[in-house]
């Protein structure tokens, strides 16, 4: 084993192009479709990478479980000169889909601008090494290109995560980039023009606090695709099961994978609290203030596995699940505790013997 392989194994989280390196290489090798300028594989091969299939003898694992047509629309957008905006509630796999699309198309998913309240226009366009700027004035060597400028120069794909968390003036810095496909650097008297293959994949949440409304002018420069929450119980269970197994493997958690019964219980609770109604639609429920997403369910189960591995016998218990549920549902709002208590007493308590252990553990935790 060489040093580079050892270093990769020590990383907490590998980028998609490293995590699925063998699959990408197999797809490129067997690809018989037309490859657009700047891409490393054809649109059909990208679709196979995202939704699963085979490339020769290599099995391609599905990265996104959901409506295949949505993925086709996203890929078709990136074939053109339009940027792509993925919108949805937290936990609908926007960032995951963005990363894997970029890994398949360009082979480098690391050109990322992370949108926050503190993101500046310089992080979207370019900034300066101020020590060199003071010493020599504005020179090409003193300029620090943003991930977006680097993608333009290379003909690659940049990612803009949580774009709606940025202030409006920062968002609008993208308008000229997406319209003209250039960034002007007046200090150097030059323009950086995008090469073929350049595009941007942005993501935006619809429910998070601190969201800034995007201007109509900016929205017009994106093709917008809304990612829905999982449509049915079986799909959500499959997503949660797959991602929990992947994350648990990455962290070497010495705990058994959650039983299907435990998975279904967690997903049932989340779907009911999210929709404000029991699965059988017979009883209306109050929903907590926080977002009860699929991503939260995945995090809950991996944390519960860590509890079982570190302080139990490695088998996920009702007490481990109850601790995870308490943390996921009851955030910093007193109202959440009351909502959760009502659910425990009015729904979970009535579900019979198979729910009794989880009911008792949740009731004790919420006292």
Summarize the structure in words.
This protein has 367 residues and is of the alpha/beta class. It has 2 domains: 224 residues, Rossmann fold, CATH 3.40.50; 133 residues. A 5-stranded parallel sheet has the order 4-7-10-3-11. Strands 1-2 form a two-stranded antiparallel sheet. It has a two-stranded antiparallel ribbon with strand order 5-6. Helix 3 packs antiparallel against helix 4. The radius of gyration is 23 Å and the shape is globular. The N and C termini lie far apart (52 Å). The model has no long low-confidence stretch (mean pLDDT 90).
Can I get a quick summary?
By secondary structure, this protein is an alpha/beta fold. The protein is built from 18 helices and eleven strands. The chain has two domains: 3-226, P-loop containing nucleotide triphosphate hydrolases (Rossmann fold, 3-Layer(aba) Sandwich); 233-365.
Shape: globular
CATH architecture of the largest domain: 3-Layer(aba) Sandwich
Which strand-content bin applies to the residues? 5-15%
Please write the CATH class name of the largest domain. Alpha Beta
- Average pLDDT rating: 90
- Give the proportion of residues in helices: 40-55%
**What's the tally of helices?**
18
Taking pLDDT < 50 over at least 5 consecutive residues as the criterion, the unreliable ranges are none
Radius of gyration: 23 Å
Spatial arrangement of strands, main beta sheet: 4-7-10-3-11
Profile the largest sheet.
5 strands, parallel
Distance between the termini: 52 Å
Q: How many domains make up the 3D coordinates?
A: 2
Key traits:
alpha/beta, Rossmann fold, 2 domains, globular, 367 residues, two-stranded antiparallel ribbon
